[in-house]
Amino acid sequence: MKPFLSISAFVFIFLSAWPLPVHADELQTRFAAVEYDNRDALKDFNYALYVGRLKNRIKTGDTIEDEVAGKMDFIVNRVMRILEMYLHDLNFKIVIRGSKSGVQADFKRLYNRDVKYIAFYSPSENTVFFSAKNAKLTVVAHEIGHVVAEHYFDISPPPRIHEVMAQYAEKHITD
Ligand SMILES: [Zn+2]
User: From CA 151, how far away is CA 101, in angstroms rounded?
Assistant: First the structure.
């Protein structure tokens, strides 16, 4: 009897740990699941992502999480308008690293190459990687341009054309 009891105790502990709420370092926007290293990284990201006069057109709440979600969805919608590529069911991931070296380690892990990037989009992972302190509006719009272009076409555009579209989104985000 004793072994059975200890097994069921283990199962109970395991199951009771299961239905925890969403992990503290994740948030969901309309279009993106955002994962961040820690709350400081999210704060740095929100601070770097200064939107100036666009601010009064963005729906935000009381928390940093709400503010980041509001900004991201606003930027995604705006990039779709800039590129005239509308995707109602767009879904992708964002990873916010506390530092540039975190982003560069992600690139190395995925592509086995050393780069100095502060942000990049991986189509195979369907994920944009950002360094929190370098997440300027133009940088974010550029990467979202890549996301939208990648999802809009059945066949992925050639890299140079991809880049032209991302640069176009970057250039016009503050119009
Ligand atoms: Zn690019």
Answer: 28
Per-domain boundaries in the chain: 25-172
> Where on the phi/psi map is residue 31: left (φ > 0), alpha (ψ -120 to 50), or beta?
alpha
Architecture in CATH for domain 25-172: 3-Layer(aba) Sandwich (3.40)
φ/ψ (deg, to 5) at 162: -55, -50
Distance of CA 163 from the midpoint of ligand 1 (Å): 5
Residue type, 68: V
Cα(25) to centroid of ligand 1, in Å?
27
Identify the bridge partners of residue 164 per DSSP, sorted by sequence position.
none
Cβ contacts of residue 13 below 8 Å, gap of 6+? Answer: none
Read off the pLDDT band of 24 (50, 70, 90).
low
pTM for the full model?
A: 0.85
Kind of pairing, strands 26-28 and 119-122?
A: unpaired
pLDDT in tens, 108-161: 999 999 999 999 999 999 999 999 999 999 999 999 999 999 999 999 999 999
Ligand 1 centre to CA of 47 (Å) is 22
Kindly tell me if the per-residue pLDDT of 35 is higher than 90.
yes
Instruction: Give me the residue label for tokens 């990467």.
Output: 143
pLDDT digits (tens, 9 = 90+) for 72-111: 999 999 999 999 999 999 999 999 999 999 999 999 999 9
